[in-house]
Amino acid sequence: MAFSSVRVGCVRSVSSTAEQRAAYDWCERTFPRAERVPVDALADDDLDLDVYDVLWWHTDDPIDSEVLAACRGSVETYLERGGGLLLSLRALSAVSDLGIDAVAPDAVGVERSPEPTGFSVKSLHAEHPAFETFDGLRFETTVEERQRSFARYERLVPERGDVLACGYREGDAPGRKTIVSWTQGTRSVIGVGDSFAFDPNTATADDADDSDDPGERAANRSGLAEGVLRFLANGATAPLTTRPRTDEEFAALRRSLSADPNRPTYHLTPPANWCNDPNGLIEYDGNYHVFYQYNPAGPFHGTIHWGHAVSEDLVHWEDRPVALAPSPEGPDRDGCWSGCTVLDGGTPTLFYTGGRDRRQLPCRATAADRSLDSWIKDPANPVIGAPPPDLDLLASEHWEAEFRDHCLWNEDGSWYHLIGSGIAEAGGTVLLYESPDLDEWQFRAPLLVGDQEGAGSVWECPELLDLGGKRLLHVSNYGTVPYFLGRFDPESGTFERERETGDGSGGDPDGVLDHGDFYAPQSMRTGDGRVLTWGWVVEARPPERQWDAGWSGALSIPRELSLSDAGGLIQRPARELEALRGDHVGVSDLRLAEESKPLDASGTALEIGATISVEADAAFELVVRKSPDGEERTPIRYTGEEVIVYREHSSLDPAVAADALRAPVENEDDGENGVVDLRVFVDGSVIEVFANESDCLTSRVYPTRPDSTDLSVAAIGGDVTIETLDVWQLESAWPAEDASEG
Ligand code: FRU
Predict the structure, then answer these.
(1) pLDDT at 46
(2) Same-domain pairing of 654 and 529
(3) Could you give the CA distance from residue 136 to residue 316 in angstroms, rounded to a whole number?
(4) Is the CB of 293 under 6 A from ligand 1?
(5) What mean pLDDT value characterizes the chain?
(6) One domain for residues 588 and 506
(7) What CATH number is associated with residue 631?
(8) I want to staple 341 with a disulfide (CB 3.0 to 4.6 A). Which of 326, 350, 376, 493 is the partner?
(9) C-alpha 580 chain-centroid distance
């Protein structure tokens, strides 16, 4: 539709402000058939709105709810008949009164920003027609130090709307969700709540002479306004990215990211946007359920919901709709943080941390159906009203007390419940509660207090696992995942370490579950008695790169935890992963004399299993994600004492991690030769290494070249014998990606 023919109805307030007049003046200059629609007429239902291709309601003043109530009927009818609506600045707040979304923007007001502001478009929406005039994802629309009004989502996200763009303030400001779209059938609404001012005195005017290039910013603002108005006038709709629900929506979203060679395909990932910790893991009714911390608004941490994936075999996964969303009126308004699931008399029941203002408190929800798609929150939430008053728990600028994450189990008729925290001047701790019925909780004692120098000042995501014979307590301390082996004493409510620590303190941990980009793991006990653990595979690239990618975070492959005969920890990939194996290349009895050899296999979704014997002073190297000329390459080296992943040449992108990651390896052969058993899982940007089924090292690498897919092996500083080496291509875990390939 050409500009000249678009009919824009500009909704005029009873007393129009300078900002509203400036915007509508601009509109009439740009769209010759635009005209003003007095709000009274809209309310009185006097007008035939169908003559307009798009309605635009722009105001820097709050709109009275009585006015909105009066307009709601005619706006609804107009939208149902296929009209488009743009709500901008404070008019974005009208979404709840107009029946467009139950959740209205929570950050509304007038502000003066010291820097120019604009937008960061979500990369999933880079092709959205509303942003047609922009080459990149980021553009500025206003100059600094002008007073202007805004309405945006910060702590909250719309319930049904799709976030198209967030703020930009000399860098991404993803927490300010400023452009939102609602599409339902033919109804199409877009809200632009910020950085969208037209009045020269408040905004972007070409004649505002104290900025670098106000002309360009004004042009951007106009380009955005034109793009949005034309898109809405065309009656087009855009794909849903925020909270997909159907298989087709999930498939479309995964397909839109599938060209990214750094996106894992057989690891658990969110369909798009953000994930962190695995949560609520449970095998139930013949299915394995994995929930995870999910931000539907984009690839950054914030507005945390619970995403959900389900599998019948632990390796092929299906996306399910968001399982748990913050309640705008509830104690979890600001986020549904990590937690776990237990069976309460057979009913799946989850405990999670609700965040609101500066409080973190335990909340509960029970499954509403056997698919675990829907959960009913306990109206009595929070289930524990405050942290234990007599402990000097650490506070922070964000939290009155660090008090979060849950591990529950039933033992001898009692429910036990662990919550992560930290004690001032002491160290990270795990607080133990007990209950006869999951309703009334009594605080027992700190289960264990770590030494803040050694094991961190706050412990998150505690988990106590019964490995048969002894228990393993692991915690996440903002850096790594230390673990402690010992015994749970229900009488005293404490954890007795098997290793003497001498001074009665928690002492040094017995080890860490992984030495790399792996955090906040949680476990599932399977029907056949195994303990399977997934961790969050953290990104090693800056937030802007995650924004550009459109997704962030993955979960590790499931690891089976058990004890060796000697009582040490064994970690091995869950055997089910073998079902993903496809094409295979094998090498055996190959002696390498200080040389390098290419392997006749390549790819970005691989499993490599090898048994290598290494002479004293020699090292074995497996190089993955290598370009043919070696410009990009990631060597994984085994030295006899350590596994090292060198990332210096992993990527030509200078912004991503380039440091080496190291894991000490237990080597029982102290003779001439060290024999090591290696399992390496390469999946896009994820590399997980298991050495001798005990020492794990997860790392992230982000090659930029599409041909960085080769593999090679080398002996360094001496001779190495490859006793066996197998490379398998691994299939995707997701139905959508298989479809896109075929
Ligand atoms: C660990 C963690 C948890 C918290 C969650 C929030 O990564 O910080 O302590 O519950 O993530 O997303």
Answers:
(1) 65
(2) no
(3) 36
(4) yes
(5) 93
(6) no
(7) 2.60.120.560
(8) 350
(9) 25
Q: Do both 373 and 506 map to the same domain?
A: yes
**Does 624 share its domain with 730?**
yes
Range of the domain at 669: 580-735
Ligand 1 geometric centre to CA of 454 (Å): 21
Task: Give the model confidence (pLDDT) of 528-555 as tens digits.
Answer: 999 999 999 999 999 999 999 999 999 9
Specify whether the CB–CB gap between 122 and 93 falls below 8 A. Answer: no
3-state secondary structure of 588: strand
What does the H/E/C string look like for 13-34? CCCCCHHHHHHHHHHHHHCCCC
Does residue 303 line the site of ligand 1, with CB under 6 A?
no
pLDDT score for 244? 85
Provide the residue type at 118 as one letter: G
CA distances, 498 to each of 288, 444, 467, 469, 554 (Å): 33, 21, 14, 11, 34
| Residue 653 counted as domain residue | yes
CB 423 less than 6 A from any atom of ligand 1: no
Whether 507 and 587 share a structural domain: no
Q: Please determine, for residue 193, whether its predicted confidence score (pLDDT) is greater than 80.
A: yes
Other beta carbons within 10 angstroms of residue 443's beta carbon come to: 18
pLDDT for the residue 186: 74
Is residue 117 within 6 Å of ligand 1 at its C-beta? no
Q: Which of 402, 417, 311 is nearest to 364 (CA)?
A: 417
Best of 338, 399, 477 for a ligand 1 pocket test (most atoms within 8 Å of beta carbon): 338
Question: Does a structural domain hold residue 301?
Answer: no
Short-list 539, 401, 409, 547, CA closest to 473 = 409
Q: The tokens of 311 are what?
A: 């599998």
CA angle 407, 413, 418 (to 5 degrees): 20
Domains: count for the chain? 3
For residue 310, being part of any structural domain is answered with no
pLDDT tens string 58-96: 999 999 999 999 999 999 999 999 999 999 999 999 999
pTM greater than 0.90: yes
* pLDDT per residue as tens digits for the range 127-139: 999 999 999 999 9
Distance 276 CA to ligand 1 centre (A): 7
Two tokens, residue 469: 């014979």
* Length, in residues, of the chain: 742
- Please report whether residue 368 resides in a domain: yes
Tens of pLDDT, residue by residue over 225-242, are 999 999 999 887 777 777
DSSP state, residue 368: S
